[in-house]
Amino acid sequence: MVSGKGKCIVIGAGELSVSEVLTEEEDYVIAVDGGFSYCSQLKLKPDLIIGDFDSVSEKKREAIEKLKEQMPHRIITLPPEKDDTDMLAALKHGLSLGYADFRIYAGCGGRLDHTLANFQCLLYLKNHNAAGYLVDGDAVIFVLQNETMEFKGNMEGILSLFSMGKEAKGVTLRGMKYPLADYTMRNDFPIGISNEFTGQPASVSVRDGALLCIFSYKANCAI
């Protein structure tokens, strides 16, 4: 985990797979485009609403326009034709405020290309000295790059690893059902899928490269 001034909570416009999002006073909440529609359901008051609002209902769009008149600093309207996705623009804003721990909800499901783009956004955060966690029901998705992550012995569930580049070198898995030692993981061979925790402390290391990690966990084992 990345320590700092609290978390940046980001609500996307994908499929909402949680019934609540716990926040603390120092957290900063961003609603991304159609993610604004989920905020009332989650009882969240976003500090910022950002997007081109192409996936927002007419009723919600009117609410956003009214809010923009009252508190313009809480709304950023993006052009529909741009290089950054709405999600990436939201993450860049959070980075500009000094946040280094991002929790992204409703960032999966819906359009597959948007989900894949959000995987790339996790790598963007890692490349900018931050950590991002895509929360999808009973799974959390994150990126490891040139680092080691330790897991406690009480972890239960499935951990799948995928190279985000052509190769991820020096991949070492300890304490897992299927260990690896100084392995070169390639992006054309899914050897890292469906590993399992064994009830003992475990670790994942990658010496040179980036791994997309999908941890499907059981109750009380979330990262």
From TrEMBL:
Pfam families: TPK_B1_binding (PF04265), TPK_catalytic (PF04263). InterPro entries: Thi_PPkinase, Thiamin_PyroPKinase_B1-bd, TPK, TPK_B1-bd_sf, TPK_catalytic, TPK_catalytic_sf. One of its GO terms (molecular function) is thiamine diphosphokinase activity. It comes from the Bacteria. One of its GO terms (biological process) is thiamine diphosphate biosynthetic process. Residues 137-212 form the Thiamin pyrophosphokinase thiamin-binding domain. Signal peptide: none annotated. Keywords: ATP-binding, Kinase, Nucleotide-binding, Transferase. The keyword Protein biosynthesis does not apply. SMART domains: TPK_B1_binding. Its EC number is 2.7.6.2. PANTHER family: THIAMINE PYROPHOSPHOKINASE. This is Thiamine diphosphokinase.
